[in-house]
Design goal:
globular, four-stranded parallel sheet, alpha/beta, Rossmann fold, 321 residues
């Protein structure tokens, strides 16, 4: 069976022409279209439309096109996803494996109400960083030698920021250093898999709530990465920029979220609308009187304690990947 590897960045398919050529060159055999252990929406990225057009034009049996996608939330139309029998993606087990080998040495810094850690940059993540750097927030942004603000997809750019001129100046040379001097290019090397990501756990005693910016955020998808599993294992409350129903899907797995502590209606939205709603939730917490704030954080941490125990003792044992 011939395999084609889909290439994505920022929820967009990078090699559509190559996919078309591959399908045309393999009309007489079953093929595998692989998302490469990632979980983007194949509808949002137009992969399913391309397959539908191909099947229609060449009158091809759709059963001869198999998919290998780790997006277990999305139904892939006429095409069989070979991972459809799974219940979890690989990050759940890999994160636990890494966590169990760690020796965490807490590094004490000035305490903050918020924390946010971002590697590769796009407009949503830059907008989140831009707003958070004006708040009481511990920030870390991995160094990225390939970062070029000019080539980022600026679709719906005006929906993200109120002051595009100031934002442009800031985003062209982001000056938020990596707390542990890590770079984007080394974070998934086999010899130190997840090491740079989980080294951030040494700083988790320095903030109360993590603002998470997940990888796949558009269309129908639910693909938690180490960006989510790390704070779950660290017992850290989260406010998550992700796809619609991200928190609802966490609850379906058995986790608890923090709706008793702050407004989680942002989970009904995607894109800049989700971020605007997230900011409202964050502001409502940050503006609380000190005693009320401490009560909310205590309740949120209690929920997070349950989540860690559920994750380690139940989830990964009952749902093998």
């Amino acid at each position: 069976m011939e395999t084609f590897i889909l290439q994505f960045y920022d929820d967009q398919l990078l090699n559509p022409i190559e996919l078309t050529t591959f399908l045309e060159n393999n009309l007489e055999q079953t093929v595998l279209i692989s998302a490469g252990n990632e979980g983007p929406s194949l509808f949002h990225s137009n992969v399913i439309k391309m397959l539908d057009d191909h099947v229609r034009i060449y009158k091809r049996d759709p059963y001869t096109i198999r998919l290998d996608s780790m997006n277990l939330q999305e139904k892939t139309n006429l095409y069989t996803n070979i991972n459809s029998w799974k219940t979890l993606n690989h990050w759940w087990s890999e994160s636990v494996n890494k966590y169990k080998t760690l020796s965490i040495d807490s590094i004490n810094l000035e305490h903050h109400k918020l924390g946010c850690f971002i590697g590769r940059k796009n407009i949503p993540r830059l907008s989140i960083l831009y707003w958070l750097q004006k708040q009481d927030c511990l920030l870390s942004s991995m160094n990225d030698e390939k970062y070029n603000y000019d080539i980022l997809d600026k679709t719906m750019f005006d929906s993200w920021v109120d002051d595009p001129g100031e934002f442009n100046n800031w985003a062209s040379s982001v000056n938020i250093p990596s707390l542990d001097s890590k770079t984007v290019s080394d974070q998934y090397k086999k010899d130190q898999y997840l090491g740079p990501q989980f080294s951030l756990l040494n700083y988790y005693n320095n903030f109360d709530i993590e603002v998470v910016a997940e990888t796949w955020t558009q269309g129908t998808t639910f693909f938690p990465t180490e960006k989510t599993t790390r704070p779950l294992l660290a017992k850290k409350p989260m406010i998550v920029y992700g796809p619609k129903d991200y928190l609802a899907n966490l609850r379906t797995l058995g986790f608890k979220t923090w709706s008793d502590c702050w407004d989680e209606s942002y989970d009904n939205h995607i894109g800049p609308t989700r971020w605007d709603s997230m900011k409202q939730s964050i502001n409502s917490v940050l503006s609380l009187p000190n005693n009320d704030y401490l009560t909310v954080i205590a309740n949120a941490q209690s929920i997070s304690h349950y989540n860690k125990q559920f994750y380690l003792k139940t989830l990964v044992n009952k749902n093998p990947t």
